[in-house]
Amino acid sequence: MKKLRCLATTIAAIVLTAAFAGAGAQELRGPPADPSQKFSTPMPPGVAAPATLETRFGKLRFEGGVPDAASTDKLLENLIFQRAVQAYLLGLPPVNQLANRQAILSMGPANLTVPIWEQMVDSRTIELTANDNTPYTWSWLDLRNGPMVLEVPPKVLGTVNDMWYRWAGDVGLTGPDRGAGGKYLLVPPGYQGEIPAGYHVIRTATFSVWVPWRSFLVDGDPKPGVDEVKKFTKIYPLAQAANPPQLNFINMSGKPFNMVGPAGWTFWEMLNQVVQEEPTETVDPTTLGMWASIGIQKGKPFAPDERMKKLLTEAAAVGDATARAIGYRMRDRAGYIFDDANWRYAFFGGYKFEWQPGVANLDAAAFFFFLATGVTPAMDTKIVGEGSTYPWTALDSKGRPLDGGKNYKLRLPPNVPVKTFWSVIVYNTQTRSMQQSNEQFPSVSSQNKDLQKNADGSIDVYFGPKAPPGKASNWVQTVPGQTWFTILRLYGPLEPWFNKTWRPGEIELQP
Questions:
Q1: CATH fold group of domain 108-251
Q2: What does R_g of the chain's alpha carbons equal in angstroms?
Q3: Which of 111, 101, 152, 108 has its CA nearest to residue 240?
Q4: What is the pLDDT of residues 359-395, one digit of tens each?
Q5: What pTM, to 2 d.p., does this model score?
Q6: Looking at the DSSP assignment, which residues form a beta bridge with residue 221?
Q7: If DSSP codes are grouped into helix, strand and coil, which group holds residue 329?
Q8: Homologous superfamily assigned to 332-509
Q9: CA dist., res. 511 & res. 499, Å (int)
């Protein structure tokens, strides 16, 4: 029995030793690091810094593992720069929201001003990947004085986003009113008052809230939907339910107008404005830490010296360039819909932009907020016949950027899998807005009554400076000297899209 116990002890020791070895434990062999010291051991691999180190920002020198003064300056400046670039990418959502809000409120005050694109958005509006298929209605609500009632008209599709560009809820067809119209109560952060019955309640994380929706065409005409929006939309404080104020509807169609945020130094001033104005409790500590590391911290002045201003201006330029690399040339194939094609997901990682629950996909978020507006699960639905999906590409079949001076063709196989309609819209890669050319609406859509189909039911869409002979109805004009990308919108996608038995062709360069 004693021998058995000894054997068991020996086996346990071997297993324990193996476990530690597998966990990275090191047995130190060889001469001591400092033979003059009695208890000196060999230096563990990877622990000590070399005397010199070549890096992308110059040679670093160390004295016993301590960087010298010049190396310290380089390292800490590099650290600030790295954090500033990340702060820029993380700041894209609130800065884009602020640019959107500032533009809209230039037309009139929040809660009272309702811009509406009565004849759809056209290429004179600079807005991130807006569409020209349906009329948009934009509203900014200010909840600083308490809850606001929003009466939503019937037959619209809309959402509610806060200043951090996070989804708070849907209204209309994908909201709790299910397209019948209804009364919503938007409740600000920290509100402790009584919530009356009779409302669809949406609690928001910020005081400033964006509510966009789209109405739909009736037999190709936007007017019936627009008329209903004007008739039924109301915005008022809860206390004024008996006597709501008159809204000012502004027709934005055909107006040269910009809602896209700037890069450069102004970006940081705008980011600081949002941080100072809005609650930050729902922003994760790492993001707030990145912003704080460059001097943007709630309740504190943002007052960088000239050296810091120069560094932040460069970081904004690099941040913008990085977002363009991620957006137009992403290398992660998980962001692509098909293994062997250039069509990409708009929502890579879902509408929360995550690798898995609770794990942020930083590239997916940077890509989306650099190129797009509006976050809602309805734009990322996997339910057949509901919501919409947005495959897009900035590259031709050979992986080259799309050249506005060349001619291309996209073939859509027969039976495009949509319940409602589809569209192909061309966007400029600089502004991420609709391509400005001699055409007011740079798109081809199944709503076009003169759309041409091939004998087998497939559809060819053409892109280039001039329309192919006899194909103008299926053509989108592009501009020499400019590059472009396109979004294929599928409204009410059907099963062949989800199981990938139907897929669009690649964009092919033509002779």
A1: Immunoglobulin-like (2.60.40)
A2: 28
A3: 111
A4: 999 999 999 999 999 999 988 778 888 878 999 999 9
A5: 0.91
A6: 218
A7: helix
A8: Domain of unknown function DUF1214, C-terminal domain (2.60.120.600)
A9: 33
